[in-house]
Amino acid sequence: MPGHIKLVKGAVDPDPTEFLLPSIDMKRADQQKPYDSKKSVWIPDPKSGGYREGLMESGDLEDPASKCLVAVAHEKFTHKAAEVGKVNPPKFEKCEDMVNLTFLNDASVFWNLKTRYQAKMIHTYSGLFVVVVNPYKRYPLYTHRVCKIYLGKRRNEVPPHLWAIAECAYRNMLAEQEGQRHVDHWRVWCRKDREHQEGHHLSCHGRHRIRQEV
After folding, report:
1. How many CB atoms lie within 10 A of CB 192?
2. Tell me, what DSSP letter sits at residue 34?
3. How far apart are CA 8 and CA 175, in angstroms?
4. DSSP code, position 97
5. Is residue 116 classed as helix, strand or coil in its secondary structure?
6. Residue 106 belongs to domain spanning
7. Model's pTM, two decimal places?
8. H or E segment at 200?
9. How far apart are CA 184 and CA 168, in angstroms?
10. Is-contact 125 98, C-beta < 8 A?
11. In angstroms, rounded to a whole number, what is the distance separating the alpha carbons of residues 41 and 52?
12. 141 plus 199 within the same structural domain
C-alpha cells in the first residue's frame, strides 16, 4: 500500500488502472472536443501565465512577423505568429509519449501534462525520458501489484511509469553484461591460442636445435 497505509492480512493492493490509463468515457469525451484543423490555435494567457485555446481568424503562421487575429470566446486578440501555436487533433489528447504529438510546441506540451495530471495520470513519456508531476497525494502507483505489471515488460507494452524505464535499463544492463562476457571469453580464447602458438613455436625451435647439436 502507498505511504503510511499498512496492508492488512488478506487484503490486496488497490487497482491502479485509473492512475495508468484513461477510461473509455474519458476517451469518448476527448474525441468530442471541438477542433478545427486549420483554425484551432494556442495563444499566451497573461493572467494565468499559461495558454488558452482559440480560433484564428486571420494571419499567416508560416511568417513569424505576421499579425494573427485569434478569437477566444467573445474576445479577440492580436499576436505575432511566433507567439501562436497549433492545437493537436483530439486523438492526441492525454498522449502517453509527447514525441508523437503532431505539433510539439510549449502550449501543447503543457496542455498534455495538465490534462493527464487532472486525470490522475502523473507519468508521461517525452522520448527517452519520463516526466512525473507531483500530485501531492498518495496514489497507489508504487505497490507490489503495480511492480508486477512492469516486471519483464518492454516500455511500449505498458503505460508510462518510472518502473518501465527502470525495467528497460535493467534489461539493457543484463544484455550488455552478457555481451561483455562473450567479449571477455573471446579475449581469453585469443590469449590462450596465442600462448599455445608461441609455445608450439618454441617447442619446434627447441627440437630443431637439438637435431643440429646431435
Report:
1. 10
2. -
3. 39
4. B
5. helix
6. 13-22+94-214
7. 0.76
8. helix 162-213
9. 24
10. yes
11. 8
12. yes
Q: What is the pLDDT of residues 23-46, one digit of tens each?
A: 999 999 999 999 999 999 999 999
Q: Do residues 93 and 108 lie in contact, with contact meaning Cβ atoms separated by under 8 Å? A: no
Mind listing the pLDDT tens digit for each residue in 78-134?
999 999 999 999 999 999 999 999 999 999 999 999 999 999 999 999 988 999 999
CA distance 197 to 200: 5
Task: Return the beta strands (E) in 73-196 as ranges.
Answer: 75-80, 85-86, 123-126, 129-132
Indicate whether 44 and 107 sit together in one domain: no
Look up residue 146 and give its three cell numbers. Answer: 503495480
Do 102 and 67 have their domain in common? no
Return the biggest CA–CA distance within the chain: 114
Three-state SS sequence of 51-63:
EEEEEEEECCCCC
CATH number of 66's domain: 2.30.30
What is the b/e burial string over 53-79, where b = at least 16 CB atoms within 10 angstroms of the residue's CB? bbbbeebeeeeeeeebebeeeeeebeb
Q: Could you tell me the CA-to-CA distances from 11 to 1, 144, 193 in Å, in that order?
A: 10, 13, 61
150 and 196 assigned to the same domain: yes
C-beta contacts of 151-160 below 8 A and 24+ residues apart? 155/125, 159/20, 159/21, 159/96, 159/121, 159/123, 160/20, 160/96, 160/97, 160/121, 160/123, 160/124, 160/125, 160/130
Rounded to whole angstroms, the Cα distance separating 115 from 47 reads: 19
